[in-house]
Amino acid sequence: MTALIIGLVLFLCTHSARIVAEDNRAQYIAHYGAAKWKLAYSIVSVIGLVLIVWGYAQTRYDPVYLWFPPVWTRHLAALLLLPAFILLVATYLPGTRMKSALGHPMSAGVKLWALAHLISNGTLADVLLFGSFLVWSIAAFASARKRDRAHGVVRADGALGRDALAVLIGAGVWFVFARYLHAWLFGVAPFG
């Protein structure tokens, strides 16, 4: 559990620099340069992610159950993950209305991902992992939207065809992940 907690602290603190320390981040970048900031950010993030994955995997050997979710919550989680995958694709696909409307579809997608997994999992490690990401994504989304308003960010409207493409790609990736990869990677079949 210790590795999971340390990993969450490293990963989420790094990704929270713009939420809680925007001025310090800007000063660091101004003093050391963007390349050194990105290098330090990446190294700490990768270390954090490795510790999260390793620590979470270790907790599966001796889980601490807080509750036992019914089987149908897996299906609900799988359904909630469909828009999460679509939002992830919309993050990187230029010209979508989703990105124009939300501004930060990845944060919205992470919220759905974390909520879906909180609904369908009942161990202490799940609450720590997915609860931390849910709280972080809510704060990150609110902070980014506030920053956009403060800087007067206006996004182009986007095209409906780009949204359709995001839905098709996102749904395809979701299907492959839910049907084949999730069980292989994590030992849990969402539709099994």
From TrEMBL:
InterPro entries: NnrU_dom. It is a multi-pass membrane protein. The chain crosses the membrane at residues 37-56, 76-95, 115-143, 164-186. It comes from the Bacteria. Residues 4-190 form the NnrU domain. Keywords: Membrane, Transmembrane, Transmembrane helix. Signal peptide: none annotated. It is found in: Membrane. This is NnrU family protein. It comes from Thauera mechernichensis.
